[in-house]
């Protein structure tokens, strides 16, 4: 698929068909995700790919699905045949920047921007786009019970599970009420040479 088409088609999908995702397809999605950049090539990003049905149900609980259903929302996480929990390990950056070729660089403890979070987001976006490129759909949401997911999946204490990516073939779903806000116009988002300037 053309890149522009992948970008245009991507949206957060909140319901999935029961069809499973082939292992090879999933492997390609994760291989694309691994291509993400990272500061100093620290590679602090990791992913737990979950296909086991009991684990998926338990992760859905950690996303507060039962409470959401109680509020009248349809099931989302538990309908997805694949869940991916993207994780970030800040220590990977401190270790990397203590290596000889990085000792002259500003240490992560002094960074104004905690780049490990950004790197997690860069990999996450690749994951979302890679699913679309494979004809799949995906969604992203936060964890209501981060420690619950950590225990469930055996994620080490120095690794932070960011959230949950839902993956599968799409079913008709509800669109977010947030979309009514519309996308911010280009002139608000993009500044030309100086903040507030829109001249070429
Ligand atoms: C960090 C993050 C958390 C999100 N959490 C939720 C959520 O809890 N529930 C939900 O319906 N959508 C959630 N979304 C999806 C956003 O609402 C959605 O990305 C936004 O409305 C734009 O729609 P689109 O991604 O389909 O273009 C989340 C998105 C991000 C990036």
Short account of what is shown:
The protein contains eight helices and five strands; from the N terminus they run H-H-E-H-H-E-H-H-E-H-E-E-H.
Proportion of beta-strand residues: 5-15%
What's the overall geometry? globular
Number of strands: 5
Query: Any low-confidence stretches, pLDDT <50, length ≥5?
Result: none
Protein structure class:
alpha+beta
Topology as a string of helices (H) and strands (E):
HHEHHEHHEHEEH
Bound molecules: flavin mononucleotide
| Amount of helix | 25-40%
Count of individual helical segments: 8
> What distance separates the N and C termini?
31 Å
Q: How would you sum up the major sheet?
A: 5 strands, antiparallel
The residue-averaged pLDDT reads 97
Taking all Cα atoms into account, the compactness measure Rg is: 19 Å
Characterise the protein shown here.
This protein has about 200 residues and is α+β, with helices and mostly antiparallel strands. It has eight helices and five strands. The protein has helices spanning about 5-10, 25-35, 55-60, 65-70, 90-95, 115-135, 145-155, 185-190, and strands at about 45-50, 80-90, 135-140, 160, 165-170. Strands 1, 2, 3, 4 and 5 form a five-stranded antiparallel β-sheet that branches. The longest helix is centred in the middle third of the chain and has 19 residues, at about 115-135. The mean pLDDT is about 95.
Fold blueprint:
Elements: H1 3-9, H2 23-33, E1 45-50, H3 53-62, H4 65-70, E2 82-88, H5 91-96, H6 115-133, E3 137-141, H7 146-153, E4 160-161, E5 164-168, H8 186-189
Antiparallel strand pairs: 1-2, 2-4, 2-5, 3-5
The structure holds flavin mononucleotide.
